[in-house]
Amino acid sequence: MAQLKEILKRNTMLLILICVMILFEFLITSRSDGYSSLFKPTNITNLINQNGYVVILTCGMLLCILTGGNIDLSIGSIVALVGAIAGVFIVNWHLNIYLSIFLCLVAGLILGGWQAFWIAYMKIPPFIVTLSGMLAFRGFAWLILGGLTISSFPAAYSAYFNSFLNGADLGINTYLFTLGCAIVIALVVIAIAFNSRLKKIRKHYEVAPLWQALLSLVFGCFVIIATGNLLGQDKGVPVILILLAVVVLVYYFFTNNTVPGRRLYAMGGNEKAARLSGVNTDRLMFFVYTNMGFLSALAALICVARFDTANPSAGSNYELDAIGACFIGGASAYGGVGTIFGTIIGAIFMGVLNNGMSLLGMGADWQRTVKGLVLLAAVVFDVLSQKRKSAN
Amino acid sequence: MSKILLEMQGIVKEFPGVKALDNVNLQVLDGEIHAIVGENGAGKSTLMNILSGTFPHDSYTGKIIFDGQECKFSEMRDSERLGIVFIHQELALVPTLSIAENMFLGNERGSYFNLNWDQTFSETIKCLAAAGLSESPHTLIKDIGVGKQQLVEIAKALAKKVRVLILDEPTASLNDNDSQKLLDLLKELQKGGMTSILISHKLTEVSQIADHITVIRDGTSIETLTRGVDDFSEPRIIRGMVGREMVDRFPKRESHPGEIGLEVKNWTVYHPLYTERKVCENVSINVRKGEVVGISGLMGAGRTELAMSIFGRSYGTKISGQLYINGKEVRLSNVQDAIANKLAYVTEDRKGCGLLLGSEIRSNATLANLGRISSRRGIIDKDREMQLAKVYTEMLSVKCSGIEQSVGTLSGGNQQKVLLAKWMFAEPDVLILDEPTRGIDVGAKYEIYTIINKLVANNKTVLMISSELPEILGMCDRIYVMGEGRIVGEFRREDASQEAIMTSILKAKTNDDASLSTTIAKGA
C-alpha cells in the first residue's frame, strides 16, 4: 500500500493529466451532439501536429532550467528568424531542400552559440542575454522578410514534416499498418524492459518489484497501442511524431545516461560543488544554450512546414509555452530537478488544455486565463508537496 | 543564589516518525551563562527553537516558564517581546546592507512609512559600543569579517532589550582570537545582568565561562553540572554527552612514511579580487606517502586558500611555484587536471561547496569520477554506478536507508562520510582534507579518523587542515603551522604540543605586527 502511494506520488502529474483528459472528454461529449470528442482520430492527429514544436522546445528548455533555473526567452524569435531564413532559401532562392534544412539548423546553432557565448563565458545573466535575443532576432526576421510573409513552400519540403506513413507503399491498409507499427513498438519496449531486468537479476542488482515493473509496462503499451489504434483510423503515423520520438529519446538518454547529462543536474544542484568536482560549468552552459538554438531551428522548420509560410511574427509566445511545460512537468525553478518524461507530460498537458478548450468553444481570452492559472497551480502544488515531503 | 529566570519542564517534541525531544528539563538562573552541550542530533537546536517560538506552542508538550509566568509562544516575535533573542549559527545578516540597517531590521526606528535614520544611527553606535565593536554604522556587513559580524548580531540583540541571549555555536566559524573576544564580551554583558544560553561543541570554552552545563543526549536532558560543585573537565563533560568515557579520541596508527607524495615549492598566491594582496607567500611543504601531515593556524592564515590553489587553481590569481605529485612536476590549470593527476580536495564547506544536498547518495558519491562508471563515449552504466556507490557507502559505514536517500536528510557526520566517499571514489593518491570533522559529533569524528588511518595504511598521502589543535596533535605525523600566508613552523609529532603550536602561531602574528609598525614608522 505504501509502495502504491509512493508510485502515485511520483506520477502525480501523469494522473492529473489523465483526470483532465477524462474531464474534457466528459464536458465535450455531454455538450455536443456526440460528434466531437477529445479522442476522435482526427483530433489526436491534430493534437500531435499542433504541439510538436512545444515538445521539441521543451526538451531544450529543460536543459536550460536544469542549470539553475535559467530560461531562454529568445526561442520564439529564433523560430521566426530561422523560419524567415528557410523561406528565403527555399522559396526565393530555390536552394536544394536538404542544403536549406542543413543551413537553417546551422543558423540555429550560430544564434544559440552567440547567446551562449555571452552567457557562459562573459557571465551576462541569461535573462538579459536572451531578452536581447528575443528583441533583436525578431527584428532581424522582420528585416529579412521586409515585413511580409513568404508562402507556398514546395510540396517536397512539407512532405518531410507534414506527411503521414500509412503503408500505402507496402500495399497495406492504413489501419493495419499503423496498429502493426504500434504493436511492434510495444513489443520492442517489452523486450527491452525484460532484457534489462534479467541482466540486473543475473548480476544481483536491485530491481523494482515485479508488479511495479509490469504496471508501468502495461500502461506504457496501452498508451502506445491505443494511440496506434486512433491514428490508424485517421491518416496513419504522422512523420512529425517520429521526429518527436527521436528527439525525446535522444534527450531522455542524454539527461539520464550520459556524463554531461549527470553533470547538468549536479551543476543545478550545487554549482560550487560541481565545479570543485571537476565539472566545467562554463562549457556546460555554452552547450545548453547553443543546443537551445539548434532545437529552436528544428522547431522553426516544423512550423514553416505546418503553416506553409515564413512569417515574421511566427513563434510568438513559444518560449512561454516551453517554460510553462517544464514547470508544469515538475522542473524546479532553482535548477537541478526535472526530467524529460515530466516535461513531456507538461507539454502534453498544455496541448490538451489548448485543444480541449478550443473544442469546448472557449475563446482565446479564457484559454489564456486558464493556462496562466494552471501554471501557477502546478508550481504551487509542487512546492507544497515538497514542503510536506521535507516535513516528514 | 539568584532566582530562576527561565524554566522548561518536561518538553516533548515529536517529528513524524522521530521523537526529537523526550522529557527535557532546563533551569536557567537570572544572570548566569548556561551552556547546553550534546552530540549533533541530540536535540539542542530543537530545544532552542521551541524556546524561541520557532516551533509554536501547540507543536510540542511541556511548559515554558519565564519570569514566573507560563509562556505560549506561537512565533519568534512573541519570545522576542519578552527579551528572548536567538542568534542562529548561520548569521541572519544581509551582506549588502549597512550595520545600522541590519541592526534594526524587523525592529525599525521611526514609523512604518517614515524611518528615523538619525535615531537608527545613534542607537546603533550605542549598541556597537556595548558590544565592543568600533565600526562605523555605515559599513556594509560584507566588508567586515565573520568575527565582527557575530558581534553585530549580539549588538542587534542588545538593541532588542535582550534578557536571555541564546547563542547557537557562536564560535564555530571564528578563530581562537575572535572566539576569546566573544567569550569575554559575554562575561562583560553578564556583569550587566544579562543571561545567556550557549550551545557549543567547543568544550574548553564551555568549561571556561559557563556557570551551569546541561548535557543533552538522545533528546533527553541527562544532567546539569554546576561550577564549583561538579567537575568541569572535558573528559567529564564528554562522558555525559556520549554516556561513556572516551578513553581514546583518536584511533592508534603505526606510521610508516614512504617517498614524498606531494611537494609544493615556493608557492605564492594572490587574492582573486585584491590582486596586490598575497594570500600565500613562498610556501614550501611536503607530505610523504603513508603520512598524515597537518596544517594548523588561525582562521584567515591562508590554509584553505593554499589547498584550493594547489587543487587545480580553484582559488587565487598569479599563482607561482612548483608542484610535485609522486615525484613528478605537474601543472594543474583546472580541477579536471587535478583529479586526473590523482589529487583530491575535500572541502571544509560540505554544504556549500561539497555536496548536492537535494540529490541521492548515489549521484553524490560518483560525481567526481564519472569516468569510472561510464563508457569512453560518456554513457553511464547505471547498474555499475549503483553497485559501486553501495560498496563505498558500506565501506565508510554511512548510516542511511539506502543509496537513493537524499544527502540533505543525513546527519552532519554521515554527510561528511558521503563527501569522503565521493573523493575516495575518485581514487586519488593524494588527499587534502580541509577541516574533515567540522561540526560533527564525537562518535562520527572517531569514525572519520579511522577512515583517514585506513587511507594512509593503503599508502595514500594525506594533508589535513584543521583548526582543532587536539585533532592535529592526535592525528598527524608532522605539523606545519601557517600564519599570514607563510609557513611559520614545522613540528614532528614527538615535539609538538598545544602550547608549542599556539606559541608559534602567536609569534608569527606579533612579528608581523612589529614589521608592519616599522614600515608605518618608516613611511611616516
Describe the model.
The complex is a heterodimer of chains A (392) and B (524). Helices cover 77% and strands 2% of the residues of chain A. Chain A is globular and about 60 Å long. The mean pLDDT of chain A is 90. A two-stranded antiparallel ribbon of chain A has the order 1-4. Chain A has a two-stranded antiparallel sheet with strand order 2-3. Chain A contains 16 helices and 4 strands. By secondary structure, chain B is an alpha/beta fold. Helix content of chain B is 35%, strand content 26%. Chain B has helices at 44-51, 76-81, 99-103, 117-130, 146-159, 176-191, 203-209, 234-242, 303-310, 335-340, 350-354, 361-366, 382-395, 412-425, 442-457, 469-475, 498-523, and strands spanning 4-15, 18-29, 33-37, 60-66, 69-71, 84-87, 110-111, 114-115, 164-168, 195-199, 212-217, 220-226, 260-270, 278-288, 292-297, 317-325, 328-329, 343-346, 430-434, 461-465, 478-483, 486-492. Chain B is globular and about 70 Å long. Classes of the chains: A mainly alpha (392), B alpha/beta (524). Chains A and B meet through helix 11 and helix 12 of A and helix 10, helix 11 and helix 13 of B.
What topology emerges from the helices and strands here?
The complex is a heterodimer of chains A (392) and B (524).
Chain A: H1 2-10, H2 12-31, H3 41-66, H4 75-92, H5 97-120, H6 126-145, E1 150-151, H7 155-162, E2 164-165, H8 174-202, H9 210-233, E3 237-238, H10 239-257, H11 259-269, H12 271-276, H13 281-307, E4 309-310, H14 318-328, H15 340-359, H16 364-391
Antiparallel strand pairs in A: 1-4, 2-3
Chain B: E1 4-15, E2 18-29, E3 33-37, H1 44-51, E4 60-66, E5 69-71, H2 76-81, E6 84-87, H3 99-103, E7 110-111, E8 114-115, H4 117-130, H5 146-159, E9 164-168, H6 176-191, E10 195-199, H7 203-209, E11 212-217, E12 220-226, H8 234-242, E13 260-270, E14 278-288, E15 292-297, H9 303-310, E16 317-325, E17 328-329, H10 335-340, E18 343-346, H11 350-354, H12 361-366, H13 382-395, H14 412-425, E19 430-434, H15 442-457, E20 461-465, H16 469-475, E21 478-483, E22 486-492, H17 498-523
Parallel strand pairs in B: 3-10, 3-11, 6-9, 9-10, 15-20, 15-21, 18-19, 19-20
Antiparallel strand pairs in B: 1-2, 1-4, 4-5, 7-8, 11-12, 13-14, 13-16, 16-17, 21-22
Helix pairs in contact in B: 4-5, 13-14
